[in-house]
Write a structure and sequence with these properties.
The structure is a homotrimer. By secondary structure, chain A is mainly alpha-helical. The first copy, chain A, is built from 12 helices and 6 strands. Chain A has one domain: 2-enoyl-CoA Hydratase, Chain A, domain 1 (Alpha-Beta Complex).
Chain lengths: 203, 203, 203
């Protein structure tokens, strides 16, 4: 993908996951995540790499829960969270590693807005229609004046810190024990944080 | 105005509208906007250039709606919005180009606080009196430790991006068609976003 | 304390109070303030130097009220407030110099979250337990990717601005008159802002 090559040239030390996030962040068009359910780990990193997230207030939860495997976010997550929420709340999200409800993530700036589930579709349709109406050249002009931050140093540090954790004996044990379980089922996914904490506590 | 000359020397590429915003941003005293109604476009840029905005929760709405004319904010608006709300919400405001209610702008940091309309006057009187009481030298000291961000690069990009849009055929048509209408009436102003969208959709 | 010497070497112009805040900010572990009551002045600066603050919604209030003595925060307070809340709200807090309720400080980002008082202990216990469970090496890795901002210039300006105010005749009178009163009693502390305003108005 030539666009990923461009990202790789701009950020020579990024990993592939960070590259995908940077690709999304660097689009001349506006990316909107419409979220009705739960997103965690890499899924939650995709959310924060988008330009905007609009979420159903009653049902959405977000978790950056990689720490439960003895690792940490490694696809822009720490840097995007810091940009949206500031260091204190980003840190709380990553080391707390728990699901956070929609009202709280809206207050923290993790998402743009939480809306009543019944209104979410029409709200997103309207904003998407409005953005399309103003023309791609206007959108591109606005995005020039509001460029995504230069994360060169942050991505390097995130990648290095994550890689050190992935190689750590504790993470290896943790991921090994988890891989032996049947975690990618609907039931497990519903309380993945609880499951991972139980696995970790038994190592 | 000698102060505008100073701004022009500090930021050699700013336009006059940006210069006025920078003049307001750079005051040694505290500027407070007390807002009870609707502010949009250049009016909304004046709001965000002030140090603080206190707003009536029931009646205030803000819109950075220039995109509806095929242009974009060009008087510090994109940069001030980014400083107060972060990139995601600033972008949403500018490309969404719609009125946003007081509760949401307070949550996003677009203003300092939304207060019940009945309390707004006394709240602002109290804070203005308190600020006056501590003395201009204390205010100036605090503002030294909390300087406005250096927007040199951001203002240059905002000005260039806006100027390119103003010269674009689409904006010329858009502004031309709007100028032929009687838009600066009370009725038109009450739904200026709707009116501008209808004009744009018929070009 | 060897750690303070390290801070002093990193920030050669900091004062001791700023040094203590930097020491707290620079910890490889996560510092959590659990707050059930009122914190003001240096106490409030301690709060914002910590990584996270969780507060009782019904009872917590915060004030950065040094301006009432004719001085200003001088222990990282202005810089930490700016990092958590942005310039507009930090400025409002410091020159307003008034108590702010928990719901507002949570909305502004002055703290991480306000929780019902009845839930505060168990919430903090859970997050502390969860952080301990992921291991100190994971916490340290995350903190590397989310370093505290470099405040070298901000701390220098804060220290200089505060020192100029401390030496000002007005502050000397103000602090002198206050020192003669019996302010460190429970009753006085309950309305310290009112008391200091009355003292200042009579100078």
């Amino acid at each position: 993908m030539p666009q990923l090559v461009e990202v790789a040239e701009k950020y020579p030390t990024v990993n592939v996951h960070q590259g995908v996030s940077e690709l999304l962040r660097g689009q001349p068009r506006v990316s909107i995540v419409k979220l009705a359910g739960v997103a965690c780990a890499a899924g939650a990193e995709f959310v924060v790499a988008a330009d905007m997230t609009l979420a159903a207030a009653e049902t959405v939860k977000l978790a950056q829960n990689e720490a439960l495997l003895g690792i940490m976010p490694g696809g822009d997550g720490t840097q995007d969270l810091r940009e949206w929420m500031g260091r204190a709340r980003a840190l709380g999200a990553v080391v707390g590693a728990d699901l956070v409800d929609a009202a709280t993530v809206a207050q923290h700036g993790w998402i743009n807005r939480a809306l009543r589930a019944a209104e979410l579709d029409s709200f997103v349709d309207t904003i998407a229609h409005n953005i399309a109406s103003i023309g791609a050249h206007v959108v591109a002009g606005v995005k020039k004046a509001l460029p995504s931050a230069d994360l060169t140093e942050g991505l390097r540090v995130e990648n290095d810190a994550r890689w050190a954790l992935v190689q750590h004996e504790r993470a290896q044990k943790n991921m090994g024990a988890t891989a032996e379980l049947d975690v990618q089922t609907r039931v497990s996914e519903r309380d993945i944080e609880g499951l991972l904490r139980r696995v970790a506590s038994q190592l």
